[in-house]
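Annotators were shown the component list below and the corresponding predicted structure, then asked to write short factual statements about the assembly.
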Amino acid sequence: MHTKPTTATSGMSRRGMLGLAGAGIVGAGIGVAGDRVAVAAVGTGSSGASASYPFYGPHQSGIVTAAQDRLHFASFDVGDIDRGELIELLRDWTLAAARMTEGLGAGPSGAVDGAYDAPPDDTGEALDLTASGLTITFGFGATLFTGTDGRDRFGIAGRRPLELIDLPHFAGDALVPTQSDGDLCIQACSDDPQVAVHAIRNLSRIAFGRAGIRWSQLGFGRTSSTTRAQVTPRNLFGFKDGTANVKAEDAGQVREHVFVPEGDSQAWIAGGSYLVARKIRMTIETWDRASLREQESVIGRDKGEGAPLSGGTEFTAVDLDKVGAGGFPVIDRAAHVRLAHPDHNAGALLLRRGYNFVDGNDDLGRLNAGLFFLCFQRDPRSQFVPVQSSLAANDAMNEYIRHVGSAIFAVPPGATAGGFVGERLFA
Amino acid sequence: MHTKPTTATSGMSRRGMLGLAGAGIVGAGIGVAGDRVAVAAVGTGSSGASASYPFYGPHQSGIVTAAQDRLHFASFDVGDIDRGELIELLRDWTLAAARMTEGLGAGPSGAVDGAYDAPPDDTGEALDLTASGLTITFGFGATLFTGTDGRDRFGIAGRRPLELIDLPHFAGDALVPTQSDGDLCIQACSDDPQVAVHAIRNLSRIAFGRAGIRWSQLGFGRTSSTTRAQVTPRNLFGFKDGTANVKAEDAGQVREHVFVPEGDSQAWIAGGSYLVARKIRMTIETWDRASLREQESVIGRDKGEGAPLSGGTEFTAVDLDKVGAGGFPVIDRAAHVRLAHPDHNAGALLLRRGYNFVDGNDDLGRLNAGLFFLCFQRDPRSQFVPVQSSLAANDAMNEYIRHVGSAIFAVPPGATAGGFVGERLFA
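Structure shown to annotators:
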C-alpha cells in the first residue's frame, strides 16, 4: 500500500548515517563531537556520555568497569530448546551485545536500513544516542545446569561449578519467587538509561521463542564506585555507599576477590566471576522518621561526610575497637559498617555494583524503593554468604530493610571475537 | 547511647558545606565548578547538570522549561484534613520545593545539621548533587474541589474551573483506577533521576498524615522537546517524538495554547494551565515484529530521520493531501501524524512533556513499557479531548498501545516568594 518515501535522506545509506551517529559525530545534544573514548574493559576513569567499552576480552566488561550511572537488569528462563539452540542463542546475544556496546544497532541492518517488508533488526530508540558507556554482562544460573526438575537439558550438569551454590536461607529473607533466580541473566549498565533499556529490550527480542524474561529491574542511581576516580554516591538511606568497595586500580584485590583463577572447580569459568543479586526493599518512610543519631548509629558512619564514627574523613579506616563515653564502642556492635567489615568476616571482600530503585508505590502510598544490590566475587561461599549471614543475624539496618529478591549467577569469562560468551562451558 | 562523632568536619557547619555543594562548587564528579546557571523559568536553551530554575514566578516552572531528561511524577489523595490544614500543606510544599529547586535540602537544617535526636528534615540522597535542572510543578485534581463523594471539603467547590472537566471515556480506554486520578499532583523533572526521586520522596514525607501517594510514575527518557535548541528524542516505538511540539520560543503559541489568560472561567488560575497525564502501555513485542513499512505507515514519518512520509526532512511541514502510487494518500488515512495534526483537530495544539517508562515486566515476560504522556494546555475541552477522540477512534497506532492510566489537573500559576502555590484559589 505504501511506497518507500522519497525523503531527502532516503537516497543515502542510513547505515552510514548511523555509523556516524555511533561514532559520536552526531551527538545527543551533548555538544561534543568526535571525542568518543575507547578504554579498556578494566576502566580506571569515570565513564562519560561518550565512553565505549569493548565487549570482547579476557573478562566480561561491566564488572570492574567504572560503575555507570544507570542499570537495566533482566533474568531469563529458557524455553523448550536443546543444547544447539542454547548455543545459537548465546551466539546471537554475543553478536548483538558486541554491536550495541559499540553504539551500533542490535543487528547489521539496524532499525531503518533493512528490508522494508521485514521487522527492523533493531528497535530504534537508541538510534541517535552514543554508546554511553554501555556494558552487557551475561550470567548463568544454577537452573541452566540442572533445570528446576533436575534434568540435564543441555548436557552441562556436570560442569556446574561448586562455587555456584544454591544460596542458603538468611534470617529475615522475604523472597518473592517472581523476583528471584533464573536460568540466565543480563546486566546492562550505561550512563544513559535509554541505552540500557534498549539493550535489554533487543536482547529479549532476539531471544523470542527461546528464552523469556523472568524478572527485570531498572536502577536509576549507582550506589557504588568501582574506581578511585569516581565520587562515592548515596543510597536511598541518604548515606554514601561503597566507600570501602574493591576498586579496579587495586589489581591485587581484584585478582584475589573478584575473578576466578585457573584451578578452581571448573576450568571453563577461569577469568569469570560470580554475581549475587539481592533486591532489598527499604522501608524508607520508617527510616525517614528515625533520628539522625539513630541513622548514623545504624550505619556506623556520619551522614554528611561518610566518615566512620570512629573519626577521620570518608576514606579513613574504620576503627572497630574505639571506645567512647560510658565504655561503649563508638561504632555500635550492630552497626552495618562493623558487620560488613572484612575484619568481621575473615577478610571477605565483595565488588559491589548496586543501584537505587523506585518501582512506583504500594497500595498504602509508600514508595516501593530500595537498593538493588549486585556484587561480584571469586567464591560466594567465602564472600557473600558469610557477610550476608553476619548482616542477616545482627545488622541494626534490618529494621529498615527487607530482602525480597535473590539470585546467583556464574559469570563466564569474556568472549573472543568470532566466539560467544560462555563458549568454554560447551567446549 | 552515642555521642556526636568527632570527625574532622563535625566542627564546621555542614550547612555551610552543603551550601557550597548546592552552588556547584562540589560537583557530582562532573568536573565542572562554579558554572551553575540560573535561567528564567521560561528557558530556551537545553538544560544541563548544573542548570537551576527558579521556583517562584508568574508561571510554574516545568511547563515551558526545556524538558529535562528524567521524571518522577506522583498523584496524591488528601486525608481527613480541613481547609486550613490543606493550605498549610501547600505552604510547606512551596517552601520545600523552592529550596530543592535551588539545590538545597528540603528543610532549613537539612539532612545532617539539625537536632541530633530528631529525624533529619531532608532525606539526604541528593546531598552531593546539584540542582540538576529540577522543576517541581503542582496541580489540583477535580476531586480536590468536590471530593469523590461530592462534598465541598475545602470550601472551593464553587471555584472549580469549567475547563477542569472529567475526561470522557475514549474508545479503547483500559484505565486502571489505581493508576488514575488524584486530588493533587506533583511533577518533578530533573536531569538527574536521583534529584527527581529525592524531591517526590521529601514532599511525600512532608505530607505524612495529610496526603499520601495514590500512584506514581518514573520516566527515564523524555519524549518531547520544548525548546528549539533541544534535539528531538525517541519514544519506545523507536521513532522521534515531539517534532511538532509547541516550543517555548513561540511566544504566540505559548500564549494561545498553553497558559490560561485572564478572563477564563476562574480568575485564580490565570497564568496557570491544565495538565493531562495518560499512562500508555505499548505492546512493544508486537510492534517489534511489525515490518518497517507498517511502522512508518502507522506513524506517518520515516524512522531514521523523522521526516513526514510526504517528503522533506524532520521539520518539513506534513503534507496530508499528497497522493502517491495507486491514488492512495502518501500519509495513511489512519496515520498517527495525520490524526494528531492541528489541521485535523480545528487547530488544537498541546505542549507535550512525556517520558518513556519501563516498569519491570508482566507475568508473561513482556516488558511493562510505554509512554507516560503529559501535556499542558489552556483548555482541555478544545485541545486534549478532540485530539484524543480523533486518535482513539481511528489511529492505526491503537493496535500497539493501551491507555491504562488517566488524570487531569488544574495547574495554578506560579507562587510568589512569601506566598504559596495555589494561593489565589483560597483568597
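Statements collected:
1. The CA atoms of residues 107 and 238 of chain A lie 41 Å apart.
2. Residues 33-427 of chain A form one domain.
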